[in-house]
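Worked example 2:
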Amino acid sequence: MHRLLPLLVLLAACESNLADLDSCDESETLLDVSLAPGAGIGYALPAVAGGCSDGSFVVESNSIPHYTFVALTPNALEAVDQHWELPRDPTEAASASELPLLGQIAFTVTGLPIFGPNEAAQPDPYGDPVYNGITDGCFGHTAMEYHNHALAQKCLTAEGLVSEPWTLADPDPNEESPVLGWALDGFPIYGPYGCVDGDCAEVVEFVSGYEQIADPSTYAWDAHEYRESSEPTVLDECNGRVGPDGTYRYHATSTFPYILGCYRGTPL
C-alpha cells in the first residue's frame, strides 16, 4: 500500500488543481501512465494530468518514469511534484534566447522534466551526458529529479508504456512522429520524422545543424558549432522549424543538442 500513497496524494492534488480545466488538443498528447508498470517496487507509481483554461495549457506530474528505473548516478529516485503552465498560442520571439545551463527547459508527454544537453560541474564539467554514457535507455537519469537529456520516441508512445521500452523496435521512419513533449515557451517537441510540405509526399528525418568541433565529454556547448544549411531536413539553431501548417515546432534528434538548442519563443 505504501507504493500507492504518493500517487493517491498527487492525484488528489491534481483533481483539486485541475478540476476546472477542460480537455484540449494539448492535453490529448499526454500519455496515460497509469497503464504502465512504473519504476519498480518501492517507488511511487507515475502520474501525470493536464488540461486547458484561459489560454493556458496546465500540466502536473510527480516526475516518476513509467518504466524500470536504472540507477546511473548516486542520486536516489524520488517523487517530485511538478506544475507547468504554457501558453496555448505561443509566438516566435524577435530573437532566440539561450537555454539555462542547468534545470528544466521542457517536459515529456509522460510528465518527466527535460534538461539541456549538458551536465553540471560533476562528474564531467558541463559535459554531454548522452555522449558520456550516463543516461538510461530512454536517455534519462536522476539529479535534482529524474529528467531526460534526449528523447527516444519508442519510450514516449502508448506502445512504450512497458517496463523496458528501449528494447522495442525503432519507430518506422516512413511514419510521422507524434508530439513527444512540450518546451517551456509553449511550442511542441516532435520526434525526428515529419513532412517537409503539406502534401507529405515523403516523410523525412530531421537532423541537427550542430557539428562537433571538439571533445564533448567536457563543456558540451563549446564542443559544438551550429552551421546554417539550405537543406530542408536541417533544423535551425533552436533545433526546430516551421511546419507545413505554418506553426513552429521543435524536433528531437539523434545528435547534439538532442531536443532544444535555444528557445524560439518566450519561456514562462
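The chain has one helix and 15 strands. Residues 74 and 158 are 30 Å apart (CA to CA).
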